[in-house]
Design goal:
The structure is a homotrimer of 204-residue chains. Chain A has eight helices and no strands. In chain A, helix 5 packs across helix 6 and helix 5 runs antiparallel to helix 8. By secondary structure, the first copy, chain A, is mostly helical. The first copy, chain A, is globular. Chains A, B, C: It is found in: Cell membrane. Chains A, B, C: InterPro entries: Gly_transporter (IPR005115).
Chain lengths: 204, 204, 204
């Protein structure tokens, strides 16, 4: 199963790298800007998680992740050069898969480390959403995750189910599958029906 | 004394969480945005301090801090829903208490770790001000701490007195009390009489 | 050689601190804002590198670096007070020296730690450019490094030559010299002839 997980993990990284590349495209950045934004989006959350838990940062040990980012960025650039349009809807769906997988990886890594379930849910969510948050901050956008359709909330939902599954004695594989499917389906439903958390109506 | 310190520490975290929630309110963020901004403001400085000193990040071990943040954010939201106004002046005073306490906690943690007094003062100040700085960066504000009334400077002042007190042979409790009162009173005076550092008059 | 390297390292830190101070000047920040921006620019990249590699953060052990930053910031402020103009061209050249040296220090530190050549090149580049990136994010500028003249690319170029030199059996001193000269001369050429990476022409 380990090998299989590794490939999905690489795919998740690649999908997030594509989203960083798209943002760099909109912001007229150069080649290095693309690499930085793609990398920050794809590995920012996991890097912060590993630094906070004081674990070895995952991509330092396995440069595969950086190769996946560069390949994804290069393919995206070629695509944009030729078509000048982008399948945003497909990207949203792919991004939902990446989010679900990152969430579960973060949950598992934190629980392995000995964190409490509550902290594990925080870490899973952070793994899923922090890269996109840093991407938006670098590009001077109010981070999408803080005001758009259900996004981080789907990670919390998946995390709670993951923890419940483990508490009820299910194996790690089942817990991971349940957590992943829960995150994924809530996120896809939010995209489809534009579900949102209530937004504050503050005066200024 | 440890128990007593812990409660004040939680209070400091809660006050900073309120300030993050207020910013999220002004920026029309959703529920998750509130949680992120409240958390970043309240534990951002301490997290960076612990990562730089390579100590275990404090809230990973003690989820109490995250509960305090959520309670503070929820109460703030309820308050805003009902009143649509906020006691800014009281918040400023409470924030000054939080700042003073965070400063002293950062100083003590760094000195315990074996840092030099100079580095300890840097760490105390970083603990006090960095969370607010990240909050402002996420919200695309020029960080208040970099141009407003005396804020970080009060941490440096309190830190110098803390270190002097220890050098003169006073006990840790006395040094903490002196550092805290120095930070607090200078900050309250700055709020009251609008003391500022000179601001650059650059062209552009 | 160690002593000599240390002085150049301090000089690199000072040059980057000057660039942070200049940005604070343009943004009308106060004295603490100057210290924060100067510090973030000068030690941000190295701090992130050390946290990611889980090494002791370099300036915690050697406060010399912070003294160099403060001295550089203070001198810059005095200069600006008296002249109200600044030798930007000389600063660019000095900055190129700082960049080249930071790149080589990052490369060496990562290789010593046991990183692969690829990761070492990433770490060298990160050491060189990340401080400036954070500086620009704090000041709400689209980071210069992501869209201007060749900057990060010169670090990658220097890093590749450094690694090639070591692979061919040259001593560390020679590899450092080659990497540094390669970074420096490509950067100076980019400044002189305005070499850029192609910038995306994205629509909105």
């Amino acid at each position: 199963m380990g090998q299989w997980l590794h490939w999905i993990d690489l795919l998740g990284v690649a999908v997030f790298a594509v989203s960083g590349t798209l943002m760099a495209y909109r912001k007229h950045m150069d080649g290095f800007g693309v690499v930085v934004l793609a990398s920050v989006t794809a590995i920012g959350g996991g890097t912060l998680r590993d630094m906070i838990l004081d674990l070895p940062v995952f991509w330092v040990q396995e440069p595969d992740f950086l190769y996946a980012i560069m390949a994804a960025a290069a393919l995206t650039i070629f695509w944009l050069r030729f078509t000048h349009k982008f399948p945003y809807q497909s990207l949203l769906v792919a991004d939902a898969f990446g989010l679900a997988f990152f969430n579960v990886m973060g949950l598992q890594k934190a629980l392995n480390y000995g964190a409490t379930p509550f902290i594990a849910i925080v870490m899973g969510t952070m793994t899923g959403v922090f890269g996109g948050l840093i991407r938006d901050v670098i590009c001077r956008e109010i981070p999408l995750v803080l005001k758009g359709e259900l996004y981080a909330t789907t990670c919390i939902f998946g995390g709670v189910l993951y923890v419940l599954a483990q508490t009820m004695g299910l194996s790690i594989s089942w817990a991971m599958l349940i957590g992943m499917l829960a995150t994924l389906s809530l996120r896809l439903a939010a995209i489809r029906w534009h579900w949102q958390l209530p937004v504050f109506q503050g005066s200024h």
